[in-house]
Structure formats: C-alpha cells, structure tokens
Amino acid sequence: MPCILAIETSCDETAVAIVNDRNCLSSIVSSQIAIHRQYGGVVPEVASRSHLETLNEAIALALAQAQLDWGEIDGVAATCAPGLVGSLLVGLTAAKTLAVVHHKPFLGIHHLEGHIYSAYLSEPELEPPFLSLLVSGGHTSLIYVKNCGKYEMIGATRDDAAGEAFDKVARLLGLGYPGGPIIDKLSQQGNPRAFKLPEGKVSIPSGGYHPYDSSFSGLKTAVLRLVQQLEQDGSELPINDIAASFQETVARSLTKRVISCTLDYGLDKIAVGGGVAANSGLRKHLMAAAESHNLRVLFPPIKLCTDNAAMIGCAAADHLQQGHTSPLTLGVHSRLPITEVMELYRDNRIDIC
Ligand code: KG4
Ligand code: ZN
Fold first, then answer.
1. CB 3.0-4.6 Å disulfide test: which of 52, 124, 247, 345 passes with 22?
2. Is residue 340 a part of any domain in this protein?
3. Model pTM score
4. What is the pLDDT of residue 73?
C-alpha cells in the first residue's frame, strides 16, 4: 500500500502528514487562528506568508514523527483546489519540488475529496457508497460518494457556508473568532426555542423549496434584525438564547436535508466532515434522526474533521493505488467542482496560475 507525504495549505492551517493507505503515521497541524483573530477572519496574504514560514519545519517534523526517510515514501501530494490561491501555491510548489528532488510521483488533491477521506481514516473498513456531509467555513455540501474520484454533488449552499454563518453571527453578537465553538458553548446555557428563525430554505421558481440546498445568509440577516429589535427595545441582549436558537435552527435544517437526501438516494451511511461537525447541536439532531431511520452516521474525531493533511494523504494513497498521478504542470484553482477531480490526473493538463 502506498505511503504518502501530504501537504495541506488551502486556508489557515499549515499541515503535513504521512499516511500509509488508511493509516496515519504522523500528522502535524499548525493553526494560524491566533494570527488572524486580530483581523476577525482570515487575511489571504498573511496566510500565504505564514505557510511559507512554517512549512519546512512541519515537513521535517512529520518525517521524524513517522520515523521514516525519503526511501520509504512512495508519493508526494498537496491540496491544489479549492482554496486561497496564494496559500495553495505554497503547498503545491513545495510538494512538486520534493517529488522532483526525491524522484517520487506527484499528486494534486481536491480539498473536499480530502475531507471525504477523513471518514476512511477514522473507520478504515468503511466502503462507498455513502453520503458525505461537509460543513466547514467554506462549504456546506452533500456529496454522493460512489468511489475513488467519483462523486455527485447533490446539495450546496447558495450563499454563506454553515461555518461562515456561525462566524458572522458570532461577530454581530460581539463574540470573537472563530464563532462556531463560542456559539456552541453559549448555547449550552440558552433556550433553543427562545426565538423562531428561518431555516435557510431555497425556494424554486416552480414552487416549493429545493430539498437539499441551503441559504444561510437569510438566517444571519434574521439574527441581525432580531438583535437590532431587541436593542431598540432597550432590553439586555439574551446572548445565550440567541446563540442557542441560531444553533438549533442550523442543526435542524441540516439534519432534515441530510436525512431526506440519504433516503431519497437509497443510501444507508452518512459521514460528516468539516469544522462544524464538532457542533454539539448538529451531532445531537443528526444522530437521533439517523437512529430513528435506521441509518448509520459517522462523526470522525474533531482533529480529522477540521483541516489536516492526513485526509489529503489518505485520498492520495487511494489515487496512487489506482495508478493516478498528476503532471508537474498542474496549477492551483480557487474553485473546482468535486465532480471534476479526475481532471487533476490528466497527463497533458497544463495550468497557468
Ligand atoms: O473545516 P474547518 O476547520 O476549516 C474550513 O473552513 O475549511 O472549519 C472551520 C469552521 C469555522 O467556521 C468554525 O466557526 C466552525 O468550523 N466550527 C464550528 C465549531 N467548531 C468549529 N461551528 C459550529 N460549532 C462548533 N463547535
Ligand atoms: Zn476544509
């Protein structure tokens, strides 16, 4: 089974891991949250510079922790899409250089495919087909996982991602960044039924609502209006109740869409990934609903749900096993649909960044 050195620098985590098939031998994750917190969100230029400063040390540490040298590495992989272009370029250029210097195959990996593979890392026996729910700062995706490189995008958000909605609501409540963990914590002391908020449904022109797509920007605006109304009334803001009601609404709406999608497509397993998979409300709602419909739901440990390079290495090991490698002319892409991942392994692909 191939042993991969993988690099992930698509956003604000500098991560390097060594993975043998579905087995993680070492995983280094250096978070930039403390740097970006002062700006209230990720600053792309600052993120790229920080990746540059941290990456070499992370590579050395990953090799040392796995107690391997280059002779035992079968391939080098890096996230090449989607993400912040400058940040992706740092990781991709390092991976290509290492691949050339050490005469190893090189693989560019789609970040969302990596998140899907985090489920295999936590449960090596898992086999497709299953439904993947990816909920992070950048994505709210429902993906039908058919096989390595074969995905169908069934649902997405039309505007803000789930994690982005948590971050924006936390900001408007003056709670700091990142907002998800703070709102989750405050929700424990709040009443989830204190305020009725819209569930972020997407209406369709022919009538009714899209069954699998979300729109969280309206929910965020509803929270803003509620806060403005309460402030006008001169009452003290019931922060815990607002946090709990918002969290409950997101958890309930995501759960409804995931369950109906799983049933409609005749699937029986759901794997959740992305930072919002840590959310206690989502876990509670989705686990209860899955149980009542006799479905299996898998929440990998949080360190595998948030951005890491082990998931990238796991996806790369499977691709390499299937004989897929990327040309050194592969570039980075800020956006690339997951349905197009096999394009990354086209021999004559030439990208200009
Ligand atoms: O997957 P991730 O680490 O990075 C990407 O965006 O790719 O996800 C980060 C997001 C942030 O928006 C953060 O607020 C959210 O995940 N998050 C949570 C929780 N922990 C992190 N959202 C809700 N509840 C949490 N406990
Ligand atoms: Zn991610």
1. 124
2. yes
3. 0.94
4. 98
